[in-house]
Amino acid sequence: MNKTKKITTTALLCALAYIATFVGRLPISTVAFLKYDPKDVIVVMGGFIFGPLTAFVISAVVSIIEMITISETNIIGCIMNVVSTVSFAVTASVIYERSRSIKGAVCGLITAIFAVTATMVVWNYVLTPFFYGMPRSEVAKMLLPVFVPFNLIKSSLNTALTLLLYKPFVKILRSAGLIEKRESISGGVINRGVIILAVFLIVMAVGALIIIN
Question: Using CA atoms, how far apart are residues 92 and 156, in angstroms rounded to an integer?
Fold first, then answer.
């Protein structure tokens, strides 16, 4: 794939990820700075198409633009955004890179759910006290009832959306001549098992959201 076409497509993915953040931000936690957005869906699809490095680049670019334009959490929020998205999208992309198939995509995304949840528990424990002036003991009390459910719900929803949207998204990019046929999940249409898994994740995430609120 020529370099110009790859740069153009990556820039398009950055724009789409920013739009997803701008229009899709939803409060799903009692903690004000924890908001859901579907940006990671675009980022991980970029990683599936072009590899983990592209997922990292999109994450960094979009997080910086978000910090400058719409974020209320400044540099700390930018860092947390990058760490969160990279933990999810790069983890999934690395695993998918080794097995470019539906099975590889599902394994990568499921692993990414646990990777981002564990990573953000650590980072919130380290950085939240500095940014919000909270005692670390208070932050520690929030880890299990707040940060773990939030990241599980967010990453599960983004996993489900990725499974449902990736094939149609790749088809659109291919029709526009932005990617070649080989830059996609091998195999035909999304199979029934993937759809069932996606619906299951959505139902579980919504159910958990209702319970914790």
Answer: 13
